[in-house]
Fold these 4 entries.
Entry 1:
Amino acid sequence: MKMPRGDTSRLFDVGQKVMARWPKTSLYFSGEIIDFNDIEYLIRFDDEDKSELAVKYKDTTLPFSRTRSRSRSLGRSTKASSKSPSRRSPSRKSPGRPPASKSSSSRSPSRRTASKKLDTSPNKSPVVELRNEIDQIDKLPELKNRSVTTTDVSSRQSARIASFEKKITYTEVKSNSSNASIGNNIKIDAKSVVKSVQEKNRFAQFLKRLIVASWVTAKSVPLAVVAIFFPLALTLVCTAKQCKMEMPKTLPKPEIFYHQKSYLIASGFLALSLVFSLIPIGKIFKTHTGARVRCNGFLMLVACAIALGVSIYQDIDLQKIYILLRPLLIAFTSIGIVLSVLLYIKSFYAPRDSINPAGNTGYYIADWIEGREINPRIGTFDIKYFLFRIALVLTILISALTVGKEFQTKGTKIFVPLLLSASMKAFYFLDWIVYEDSFFTTFEYLNVGTGLVLSVFYMTMPFLFTFDTRYVLNHGDDMPWYCLTAIVALYVIGYLVMKGANSQKHTFRTNPANPSVALSGLWGVVRHPNYLGDIIMNLAMTLLCGFKHVIPWTIFVFILFNLYVRMSEVEKTCKSKYGLAWASYKARVPSRIIPKKFLSLQYER
């Protein structure tokens, strides 16, 4: 149905119920205004997913009155017609009109439709009328706009089918046929007809979403390919013997990619992490969903570090474990893929408030890649936090394993750049473990779906982020002390910027009633100081690799690209969530990541 256009000026306030046009359609639905700016409202629609969309002022209007609309559809009311002068004046009556004709002509076509009775004319059969009504169900129009969720389409279609059910329920059927007569008060049940139509539409929608590629699918598939194959490609092009930007001419032996011990080690490490997640030791943090998560990642790290130290003390050859890094990468990647499939199946039984809008498009491949659920849980067990903690602890262990292997080979004469690279990497992730409750206020935890990309990324992150440390071990060059000092100073500056910004952000999100926090400190200089500190720290760690090969710098470019995408997602979410407050903040802090006084020409979206 089409609705009248409204004025461009604001007519409604926050909390008011309105009828708003769904974006890119001509259909209006009821919703509640939760925010507004100069040209549009932010409306929470009354659908099953409680969608929050921006709608322009002109596309909103007051809710329709059901009583009034019903009276209009039935034509002129009896009360109004009785008071009409034309009905009171006998001179205006049409003379000679037969009574039967009068009663028949005074009723409008819309009136006859509303009465829901078959025409008693001998030219029309009640069976024909019934078939015509049933045919209307088969010709239900489908919504053309595929951006509307499957739940909305099915709910509106069910409402229309319900209206047709009422139309084909007849309380009186009369037949003028001389061969047979049909009794009164015969009710025709249309449930079987409706069910067949729904099954046909459901099957057609399933085939379309399974086969037809959408823009969402085309955008998600490259992310999945990069998440799965990029870490593996780095291990193939950069080995201990050479490091060139070209694939090997001959494929490595299969045992390089697969080893039975790698799957045993990966499964055992996941089981150990699960045990530490369940033991009642550690601080309990209450998430935004009300779940109570136990934070004891540091305890798990200490236990693993003790086990590694005992292995070195017992002269266990760490080289045998080190050569399993590539099979371990394949094993953890496989675990991430399998886990993403299980999470996709679980998401269909998850609460509606945990569904990811970006992963609920109805296209199965895209939803599987993006993740239909943001924070999947089994009771109080938080799966996203579980995967994140595995990535943190495993990254520190691989860094320590690299140094421990070198210690067994060369003793105390360890390569200084290697020691610095491993220490910087371990310290970076150790900070997340010590302050792991700050993860629950990050954009990644609050807004990113736990699908194929995130599951595989958490499983492969320890191997990807320790690549530069292993590169320094195999291909690194010695550096003068002043270069190493400058790199360490740059790393410390980046850490202070990132730590200060994250602490301030954590304070603001745990206490949003104090908006002055967002405009003070580093957040009053640039809009994303936490990402600025992250970039500085990764730059310092990459500088230890030198400039002999370009491959280590591809990881730094990869990090820059991911942070740019994340900044765009954060700004889009903040614009939708905070509205005018975010616009005011952007006006006061125009620089996205580089302070304005250090950059005369800055990029603005």
Note: Residues 12 and 33 are 8 Å apart (CA to CA).
Entry 2:
Amino acid sequence: CVERKWEGGYYNKYIYAACDKGKRKRIWEELRIGKANSLIVCWCIVGDFNYVRRACKRVDFNEENKGVGEKEEFNKFILEMDVDDMPKVGGQFTWYRPNGRMKSRINRVLASRE
């Protein structure tokens, strides 16, 4: 993770989440604690979260309902952080397996409403 604090009370965090579920959850917990202990109101978290928010954002030709609980957990994290998932411009997916049999939207920008 890389972080930047800007004058005027804006906080940017750039992340690259691990493939390991436990490591990803630790990143979320660190972000929750950081925000709870911060006086900075405006947050922007950018990067590869390695999670999707909805089933339609992952195409996997092997497992159709993989990660249903993970989607709910990720959406809960976004709600608890009080950030919005900024709309993506361009194609629907941000990651593609080289053989084209799997694709998903795992890169995103989460930002405060202020």
Note: The chain has a mean pLDDT of 78.
Entry 3:
Amino acid sequence: MAWALRLRLLLLLAVAAAATGGRVDLWPMPASVTRGAQTLLLNRDLKLSTAGSSYADGKGILKEAFQRMVAVVELDHAINGTYSSQGAPVLAGVRVAVRSPSDVLNFGVDESYKLSVPATGNPLYAQIEAQTVYGALHALETFSQLCNFDFNANLIELHSAPWTILDAPRFPYRGLLIDTSRHYLPVPVIKSVIDSMTFSKLNVLHWHIVDEQSFPLQIPSYPKLWNGAYSYSERYTFDDAIDIVQYAEKRGVNVLAEIDVPGHALSWGVGYPSLWPSTTCKEPLDVSNDFTFQVINGILSDFSKVFKFKFVHLGGDEVNTSCWSTTPHIKSWLLQHGMNESDAYRYFVLRAQKIAISHGYDIINWEETFNNFGDKLDRKTVVHNWLGSGVAEKVVAAGLRCIVSNQDKWYLDHLDATWEGFYTNEPLTNIYNPEQQKLVLGGETFSRPFGHVLQQLQIHSYKIAKLSRLAVTMYCDTDILFLGYIVAHRSSWVHKGHNICAKAVDVLFAYPEHKQ
């Protein structure tokens, strides 16, 4: 949380530095912004009012978000309580009116809001109007970016009032993937990642929980599965998963759980060796063994008790099926069922899809499933593009939904990916039919922890700028000179003592060979 908070402060400092120059620099840029020229001061004891709101805030989502916002705005500084000598109007608080009483975080939930900051009034209150509490959370984030700590007067200022901001995201799916199989992340680090996402209004944490390297999650139905963890301590209990999901939900972030089948599953057999084709050829999972699908059913049954998001990710990528044709009992099964390796791959994916649907999920699969047998996929399938460009247009033309994550543009661990490419990666390229455009749910960036490349603190400092660029593309349809903006404010970060992020800017932007 501490490092995510510091990264958040970097964004606020950058916005504050630009405020005096007459620019509107908000992450992501709202759909509509008007402003004036009045400077306000914020009351040292800023109030939250929910009078007239239909939302009772029984879970404390709004109250806690307001407290987090105030803590960030104040920058842990002592605030001067004397305003009379300043001569500027004082903002007493924020009134929030949420129309919906529900805080169920469904996919496609209304995230729109209106933020008004008047220049006059007694008492003077900012006003937030939103259909749901999750729109109100975005409004609080935007409000925080309007505020600037004055180090000379020890006061919080809000420039350019009155403000009227109308906003709604461009895409309903704005995601970040973390991989806890290849590199274990402690729960506090995952929570810090979630906090960082909210600063850019990203709303889906894609949790790639397991892979061939390790199986760190407790599965009550099959308790030996987490024998495949790296170590006894590098595990997540079932309650840890519940805690992460609840933490994310209170910040407007859904958690998408992924188990990758039939490939990337070597770790499953540590606890249950019969899931392997053989002890010498350990993946993909044994397609001929009904126990394989019983385990998948058990995992998804347990998932349904924790991961309430509409979707579950079943992977399906990079499947090397050679073990199936070289393992005698599977080879015999293939002959008996009149299948070759490709047929068995399709059979496995489709059977796993049916299991997921039986637990109430829509399915997301990596694009290889579409590339190999797209016409056979269940219509509830969302195709996750990651290999390259040009896939989304084919997917939506086939009537299926798509998420864009092409690795040459949006993978954070691809250090050769240029900023120009990251910035110009448009999910709707060559998709002109409005109905087909609706099938592109959004996009996602892949933040595999760089264990062998960077330490955790460096991960965050590297990630923040690129995450913010993705957020602009996913959230709004505005041409913002983001690259130049970050570079321009490097000096202000150094001045404020935030050398970690300044060094990250040096790496990302200054070296011509990276063109970052």
Note: The first strand starts at residue 32 and ends at 34.
Entry 4:
Amino acid sequence: MALKDKLKTKKENTKNNIPKNIVTAEELIDYIRFNKNPWRNIFFSFLRGTAYGLGIVLGTAIVLTIIIYISNYFINYPIIGEWLKMIGESMTLSQ
């Protein structure tokens, strides 16, 4: 394979590796800067993971609080009340 063909293939591969949503030269420069510094990439990935984990914990806590608050209104109904009492007793016994 001639040198010219190798360069052409390399150019096409580079062209295919650039994401499709990059339109302007400024966006391309930002993309290159972001990928050149691996520590910055690791830091932002860490922040993203931390925010995701915190969001999961807070969201779960809020949803469970609302469910428990609403279930307190159903405690006096015959079938649902007995079921909720069993759940409450099993939770206190497990502690």
Note: Helices lie at 3-17, 25-36, 38-71, 78-94.
